[in-house]
Amino acid sequence: MIGTAEQHIKAPSLDFDIHPLLQKRWSPLAFSEERMSEEQLQELFEAARWAASANNEQPWQYVYALRGTDGFNQIWEGLLPGNQIWANSAAALVVSLYRKNFQRNDQPNPWAMHDVGMANAQLVLQATHRDIYTHMMAGFDRNKLHQTLALDGQAEIMAVMALGYLGEDTDLPEKYQARERSKRQRLSIHEFTKAL
Ligand SMILES: Cc1cc2nc3c(=O)[nH]c(=O)nc-3n(C[C@H](O)[C@H](O)[C@H](O)COP(=O)(O)O)c2cc1C
């Protein structure tokens, strides 16, 4: 099924040799039965913890649940149907949030979304290092999840993340199998860069 990063269908076609962890990461829909432990999740949060942030505000927050728990079902119920169909096999669901205002003066923090993205990226790469794959989701019901998590006006949801070990794509509905087997597409470097 899954070979080395080089031979796998999801391996990126590179113009430059980037770090193996960056090459290895992709967003699967099929996760295996293998469970994750609380400690494994804590290690991923440690990676997030050391991200850079404007004024060292560390605006990120995470709410998490392992598969088989009531919390997992609660987060899962907040996903849109197109994500629910595959995310139920994840070993963990993690909601990433950010504080909208700076704690020191309660003024809006324009970099909060940037910084939670930085923390998420670190979390994702640490997970990849442990053969744990991650799939970010914007497809969630914001109002429902706000209520489920009993969020105050200061916290906003950035994304929900499904995590787990790679599973068999044959366990997915057919439509999703095709997506799981498709090659990854990207803009070329010159399409998003400009020398000044
Ligand atoms: C913020 C964010 C939201 C996303 N939302 C969804 C989603 O709701 N459902 C889904 O199947 N994939 C979602 N994705 C996954 C992207 O479609 C995926 O990252 C992109 O196609 C690139 O593929 P790769 O991650 O395998 O490189 C999301 C990714 C990000 C970063």
Describe this structure in words.
By secondary structure, this protein is of the alpha+beta class. It has one domain (28-183): 3-Layer(aba) Sandwich (NADH Oxidase), CATH 3.40.109. The chain has seven helices and four strands; from the N terminus they run ααβααβαβαβα. It has a four-stranded antiparallel β-sheet, sandwiched between helices. The N and C termini lie far apart (45 Å). The model has no long low-confidence stretch (mean pLDDT 95). Flavin mononucleotide binds at residues 26-27, 83, 136-139, 159, 184.
Quick gist of this model?
The chain is α+β, with helices and mostly antiparallel strands. The chain has one domain: NADH Oxidase (3-Layer(aba) Sandwich).
